[in-house]
Specification:
Length: about 425
């Protein structure tokens, strides 16, 4: 396991005001690894994934797949998958812990012809419906019913067939569901208004290497010609742009100088633009960033949007930076309806923030002050870590098991950059 354990009572203590300096290596992206791992349900021989982050969520997905009958050998970031699913029912105890478990629905249908998946749980950042996943399955010929908390999918004797999918709303997960289900359907599937996140491109590229026929990768319009079978394949998970962005803010908020390695800067363009507008210097190299800041950040408004817009997964962290800006900032959240849960906790550190529906107004203060705070979800936890890194005194952050879901070796990485971090 990584250095974090899944203990709900653990806390992180951070003594702030240390400039972070040095180099940090970014891990593989959780949000790419999860759908890629689900491909093991449809790539039935010798499927290798490299650069898989060791996180609570990837361990959970691994357990879910093992429970379905997939053989997994996990060694230092490399996963080897073999075998076919032997059952079509996903474990309630595992699925309820992670919303991304819904990603097994399509591959199970494709592989077994039927699927029974409990309604998923996950972050408390909004109602997070699954109607678009269901729309995808129906468009590809599945019958879907809901019974006793389960989504139950079945196919008639013609199996999955290509179809037209026009998303009324951009959804990362539903686009991934559509891709994973359509690759083995009979005939052609056309997807419009698809999400274009780098993690989706990673999934589609891996599938094409395995023999799938997906065109339009990186655009909103995908055309998928179904194939009979997927072949063995090896693939390296794209690096985590959200982890990279979080470390960029860690450098900026502590007036540090950090080199962030193993990333594709193009995947972070809008975020880098915003950071530069706050006065942080960001030097871009081929697969790294140098982030350096020498004065208090300037305010700069952002609106979260689907990729290539400003990512919702960096909104909370960016708010920590704007909490100490030299003026007022507006941050508008357009993806999730309840993603300001970090605000009351940041306020405990002295931030001045008011919320009006989907918009937060942040009146920058000179300095945050260490406090006892409670993390409510994955990215909110990182927001509080960042606030604590810049604050005077020591902060005690509760609910840090959320961090274990998405940040690999966070304590070590921060300590190596000079932060004073302790977990107990
Ligand atoms: C993924 C990411 C998450 C990120 C989010 C948006 C993973 C594992 N998680 O989540 O970190 O914050 O993209 O970039 O990759 N929606 C519906 N019906 C559905 C599905 C979604 O209405 O069936 C709505 C959601 O409530 C939300 C919006 O669509 O308002 C976008 O959500 P979506 O892109 O699907 O997020 P996830 O795939 O769950």
């Amino acid at each position: 396991m990584n250095s974090f354990t899944k203990n709900n009572i653990e806390k992180i203590y951070i003594t702030g005001e240390k400039k972070l300096t040095g180099t940090v290596n970014i891990s593989g992206a959780k949000n790419a690894a999860l759908p890629l791992m689900a491909l093991s349900l449809i790539i039935n021989e010798d499927f290798n994934l490299y650069n898989v982050p060791d996180l609570a969520d990837t361990r959970l997905m691994s357990n879910l797949l093992i429970d379905l009958g997939i053989k997994i050998n996990w060694k230092k970031g490399i996963l080897n998958f073999n075998g076919k699913p032997i059952k079509d029912e996903a474990s309630y105890d595992l699925v309820r812990q992670m919303r991304a478990s819904i990603l097994v629905l399509g591959p199970l249908l494709a592989s077994k012809g039927s699927a029974k998946v409990p309604l998923p749980g996950g972050c408390a950042i909004g109602s997070r419906p699954i109607d678009l996943h269901v729309m995808v399955m129906k468009a590809l010929g599945a019958k879907i019913i809901f019974d006793s908390g389960f989504i139950i999918g079945s196919l008639n004797n013609k199996g999955l067939k290509g179809g037209l999918i026009n998303f009324p709303k951009v959804s990362v997960g539903a686009t991934e569901s559509a891709i994973m289900t359509a690759v083995l359907a009979k005939g052609q599937t056309k997807i419009s208004n698809a999400a274009k996140e780098p993690e989706i491109n990673d999934l589609a590229n891996c599938l094409n290497k395995a023999g799938a026929d997906i065109k339009g990768i990186g655009t909103s319009n995908l055309i998928i010609n179904g194939v009979k079978k997927l072949n063995k394949v090896s693939h390296s998970v794209v690096s985590d742009r959200i982890e990279a962005g979080s470390f960029a803010i860690a450098s900026s908020i502590t007036m540090g100088n950090v080199e962030i390695k193993n990333i594709n800067p193009k995947n972070l363009s809008e975020f880098i633009n915003a950071l530069r507008m706050t006065g942080t210097r960001v030097d871009i190299a081929n697969n790294s960033l140098n982030v350096c800041c020498s004065k208090r950040p300037k305010p700069f408004d952002v609106v979260t949007k689907p990729h290539p817009g400003f990512p919702t997964d960096l909104q909370a962290q960016y708010m920590a930076l704007m909490a100490i800006a030299s003026g007022n900032t507006l941050i508008k959240e357009t993806i999730f309806e309840n993603r300001f849960m970090h605000v009351p906790e940041l306020t405990r550190m002295g931030a001045k923030i008011s919320i009006n529906h989907q918009e937060a107004k942040i009146c920058g203060v000179k300095k945050l002050k260490g406090a006892r705070v409670m993390a409510s979800d994955l990215r909110a936890s990182m927001c509080l870590i960042l606030g604590a890194l810049s604050a005077s005194g020591t902060s005690e952050i509760d609910g840090v098991y959320h961090l274990d879901r998405g940040y690999e070796n966070l304590e070590n990485k921060l300590t190596n950059l000079g932060a004073i971090v302790k977990r107990s």
